[in-house]
Design a protein that fits this description.
143 residues, mainly beta, seven-stranded mixed sheet, 2 helices, 39% strand, globular, binds 8-OXO-2'-deoxyguanosine-5'-triphosphate, binds magnesium ion, 8-oxo-7,8-dihydrodeoxyguanosine triphosphate pyrophosphatase activity, metal-binding, magnesium, hydrolase, Nudix hydrolase domain-containing protein
Length: 143
């Protein structure tokens, strides 16, 4: 591309609780008002696990455990006002303390966090997540 844009790395987390995942409605320009996973940009020197844990803490106040890599997808947002390209790393995790409740710590970026049953997800989902669901992706551990 001639505008100097480069692909960036996003890390997001399927925080699972029973058959539910944590989602929030985005207020960010990309995917505005769609439901997405908590997550953000990989910072220089970070592992995927560190990034997932940090973003969860910053966005929801939650402490997570058993952070594991699930998959990676390539996401183009070329029709956006600011065209962008993300390599998105999807992690899975559980709550360190199952009693802990999510807080909306970045209200300018998200309308609020809640648990949604995987079999009854809210609409519309953020594009990359919608595609994974349509492709039959299942973030839950076997068994
Ligand atoms: P930061 O400043 O905290 O690092 O970034 P952020 O404001 O939290 O970034 P973000 O947009 O929440 O996440 C970075 C990118 O990751 C996002 O623009 C596109 C990509 N991404 C996906 N799917 C998902 C998803 O389900 N949730 C989130 N949060 N990001 C996703 O491709
Ligand atoms: Mg963030
Ligand atoms: Mg984010």
């Amino acid at each position: 591309m001639e505008n100097g844009a480069v692909p960036r790395v996003g890390v997001c987390v399927f925080l699972v609780k029973g058959k539910a995942v944590l989602l929030g409605r985005r207020r960010s320009s990309i995917g505005h008002s769609t439901f997405a996973l908590p997550g953000g940009h990989l910072e220089f020197g970070e592992s995927f696990e560190e990034c997932g844990s940090r973003e969860l803490k910053e966005e929801t106040g939650l402490d997570i455990a058993q952070v594991e890599l699930l998959t990676v997808t390539n996401n183009l947002f070329l029709e956006e006002p600011k065209p962008s390209h993300y390599v998105t790393v999807f992690m899975r995790a559980v709550l360190e303390d199952p009693q802990q409740v999510p807080q909306n710590l970045e209200p300018h970026k998200c309308d609020g966090w809640d648990w949604y049953d995987w079999d009854n997800l809210p609409k519309p989902l953020f594009g990359p997540l919608e595609k994974m669901v349509q492709d039959g992706f299942d973030p839950f551990p076997i068994g």
